[in-house]
Amino acid sequence: MPAACCTRIRLPVSRWRQRTACCRYRSRPASLQSLAYHDYEGIAVRDDEKPRLQRDLGSCNCLILRNHGLLTVGRSVAEAFQYMYTLQRSCEAQVMAMAGGSKLTTVSDEVLAGVKQAVQAVSGSAGPSLAWPALRRKLDRENPGYEN
What we know:
By secondary structure, the chain is an alpha+beta fold. Helices cover 43% and strands 13% of the residues. Helix 1 (12-18) crosses helix 3. It is globular and about 40 Å long.
């Protein structure tokens, strides 16, 4: 997938999750159709790391940079943003669930596949960009003139 936009964040909850068994309990929402991991190599500014980042991302939309942050790519700003929002919320959900100390329930591959199909049926061709127009309207209301 040729990416037109890349987003990256580094929030405490996402860094904590990266130090744990990420998605071990299948807390990843089915709307994150592709998720990959990249081991921490220090601050990602060296040119020699770029091929490894690209290799690890592969054809995925979401990349967990272990001990460093989250990265998403999309065909548009809307798509990359929605992947990031969903990935970040997934991190928050897993951290909250693990904080309870109880054994977490593993969701079967069959259930995940069914959820993925349902998400695709509801969102149609808009996919992860479905919410973007509503988010833009909210931004227009709450912060008019942001584009200037």
